[in-house]
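Write out the 3D structure for:
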Amino acid sequence: AGEPAPRGDAEAGLLAAIEQTIRPRGPDHQSRVSMQTEAGARIDFLSSVLHLRGALALQPLQDGRGSVLQWNGELFGIRDSRPPAEANDTLLLMESPGACASAGGLLRWLGVPRRPIAA
């Protein structure tokens, strides 16, 4: 992993178009994290946040290990509890020990989430 390689004109234009398209989905914050994998692939994480409750999480979140988290939704019934109303679900996930250490860790932490289901 390391600094991402520069973009070509076509790639930069596509990324700009995607950013413009998602901007109206979240007027409270827009951001991007770019990285390059060990295999040399460039990854751009784009977020457009609509802040509803809790502290505003400036997504995408990145921790000290370089892990990136983007979360869209609310946590319901995680391990038989519900986060406090003032909590921010994205920050709760990122700050939970082991929750985001790996995809398997996240799935174990979430268990089988219960959520409202449309009938």
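The CA atoms of residues 4 and 36 lie 5 Å apart.
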